[in-house]
Specification:
2 domains; 6-stranded antiparallel sheet; 4-stranded antiparallel sheet; 10 strands; 26% helix
Length: 180
């Protein structure tokens, strides 16, 4: 075997150190992604409170109001990689859909929003709401959202039905609120 001259030995040592540094950096980045780090947890944490849309002043209905309130009953919910779809059944009277808030945000938008708003549904009718996901990183990426469906009763009272969506837990209907 030939002896390596000093320049080749130096180059091999430098290459080994660089390779070791790359492996350490990759290991630290993966470890931080798994943990989330303290700063990324604070930035990505979504607080889901029992809130009504930003521009609404909602309140809990009285027993009498709640008894005669029209409701949206969730019949079916599909959580696909690129979309969400809801199928509601109207119970308790005629309603007119006023708004779906948020109908468009950073990761989801309501399809045919302009066609849905203003529609009148009677007792027993179905209401289909389809939503597109805009920026889904991967199916395992957790997503959370609060969607408020605002509708008007035949008598003129406005109601808001809250939907709490989590990609981990599915959909949960929030409390029915009456708007001022």
């Amino acid at each position: 075997m030939e002896k390596l001259d000093l320049n080749n030995q130096t180059l091999l040592i430098i290459a080994g150190v660089v390779l070791l540094l790359i492996v350490v950096v990759i290991f630290l980045v993966r470890k931080k992604k798994k943990k989330g780090g303290t700063s990324s947890k604070k930035k990505n944490k979504v607080v889901q409170e029992d809130v009504v849309g930003k521009k609404y002043k909602g309140e809990d209905p009285t027993e009498d109001q709640l008894e005669h309130a029209p409701r949206l009953i969730l019949e079916k919910f599909d959580d696909a990689p690129r979309s969400l779809s809801f199928r509601f059944k109207v119970k308790g009277g005629k309603i007119k859909l006023d708004e779906i808030d948020p109908y468009d945000n950073q990761w989801i938008s309501v399809l045919h929003y302009d066609e849905l708003v203003g529609q009148v549904r009677s007792d027993g009718d179905l209401l289909h709401v389809f939503m597109n996901r805009k920026n889904r990183f991967r199916p395992s990426h957790p997503e959370k959202a609060v969607v408020n469906v605002v509708y008007r009763q035949d008598g003129g009272k406005q109601w808001v039905q809250q939907l709490k969506y989590s990609s981990d837990k599915g959909i949960k209907l929030g409390a029915l609120k009456v708007l001022n």
